[in-house]
Amino acid sequence: MPRAQRKRKMSGETDSSPKTKAEKKPIKRQRKRNISDSDEDEEKQPDDSRSPVKYENSDVENETKKKPKPKTQRKKKTKEALTDDSNPPKKTKSRGSKKKSVEETIEANEQLLEMAKENEKEPPGEKYIGGHNSINGGLYKAALESASIKGRAFGLFLKSNRQWAAKALSDDDVDNFQRACKKLNYSLDKILPHGTYLMNCASTDSEQLKKSRDCMLEEVKRCQRLGIKLYNFHPGSTCGKGKVEEGLQTIADSINMVLKETKDVIILLENMSCQGNTIGGKFSELSSIIDKVDDKSRIGVCLDTCHAFAAGFDIRTEESYEAMMSEFDETIGLKYLKAIHLNDSKGKLGCHADRHENIGKGEIGLDGFKLVMNDSRLNNMPMILETPFIENVSNYEEEIETLYGLVK
Ligand SMILES: [Zn+2]
Ligand SMILES: [Zn+2]
Q1: d(CA 268, CA 336)
Q2: 71, part of any domain
Q3: Where along the chain is composition biased (Basic residues) (predicted)?
Q4: Exactly one of 29, 152, 194, 213 is catalytic; which is it?
């Protein structure tokens, strides 16, 4: 299908072409904003409502949905429904249509089944590439979206990344997620959740710090319950109010508190771009945090290529790429490298600006990613794209194909 046509179909516009087979139905993926690790962007951006992937008639049965809503809420809904044509009352839905299980949803979609088979094999170059996928409609939807874009790994948020509070995970949420991963053959160690952007585990404000620590604890507990092995977060920022050395200690203390109350999950520090007062742009800062963490078996690093480049690591030539990897090894230790974020950079080398670009379209370019894709030290770990969407549509599928095409 031509790109333009496919894009139109995926973005959900009306398509009157006849569909004879269920598997030909387009899988829509949209999101309202691009993932960006930028502090600046965070404030401007609305609540995250990433790319709902719509599998027609595929809402998985969820016990929690059946619970009656509180009376006041129910009344309001009915009123809205009566006065708003765009929001028809729920009872117009056919009552006979039984909701499908996760397995049935996957089995009804040839594309997903194909990917489930692919996931049984070792990927090219032993590189597990995927996208940061949406949890709109349930955590398990991230697994379905991953398969639909041919991801061999995936990233996700564990709850809305713009709110502190979150609805408790139900047993069904956990069950559906694990069943989707099992059916699609995603190993739980190739899944990389991203911590809420609101957190600042280096904060000098006691209230902010407590909120951040509670949030991280909740999220790591979620990983533990889901069976996910890794959890990535941004170390934090001094916000110009404290010394970096104090910030490093506060971050390490936060991690130690969370590790004490959880088990199994490895917490990853993401390298940052040296933007503003953020901590973690320098490898020495990541190393200093790791030094202060009690349980070294449960701490690691996720290396973001855009952040590294913006922080001044030139990964475009073999020599300079090797220099970065050597510095990583000498300063932090390669054994701590557990995951990669694959992003090109809109900003120039050493610009300190955290602005992601699509693979090959930015300042890093394909030469840099060729080095990444052929580095055996990066085998068998999740490599997650967080690149901008084009006209509200993820470009992940093409980028994954491009990246695998670089494997020699
Ligand atoms: Zn990040
Ligand atoms: Zn990142």
Answers
A1: 9
A2: no
A3: 66-78, 90-99
A4: 194
Q: Is residue 269 part of a domain?
A: yes
Which listed residue (33, 50, 356, 357) is catalytic?
A: 356
Does the annotation mark 85 as catalytic? no
Tell me the residue range of the domain where 178 lies.
Answer: 3-12+21-63+102-405
- Tell me which ligand sits closest to the C-alpha of residue 193: 1
Model confidence over 237-273: pLDDT tens digits?
999 999 999 999 999 999 999 999 999 999 999 999 9
Instruction: Please tell me which residue in 132, 152, 222, 234 is annotated as part of the active site.
Output: 234
Q: What is the CATH number of the domain that holds 151?
A: 3.20.20.150
Q: Read off the pLDDT of residues 114-125 as tens digits, 9 standing for 90 and up.
A: 999 999 999 999
Assess whether 356 carries a catalytic annotation: yes
Q: How far is the CA of 194 from the centre of ligand 1 (A)?
A: 7
Which residues in the chain come in under a pLDDT of 70? 1-97
338-355 tens-digit pLDDT = 999 999 999 999 999 999
Judge whether 85 lies within some domain. Answer: no
Is residue 322 included in any domain, yes or no?
yes
**Residue 197 identity:** Y
Element (H or E) spanning 129, and its range?
Answer: strand 128-131
CB neighbour list of residue 213: distance below 8 Å, 6 or more residues apart: 201, 254, 257, 258
Q: Which residue has the tokens 């894709």?
A: 373
What is the pTM assigned to this prediction? 0.80
* 197 catalytically annotated: yes
235, 211 contact by CB (below 8 A): no
Task: Among the bound ligands, name the one nearest to the CA of residue 341.
Answer: 2
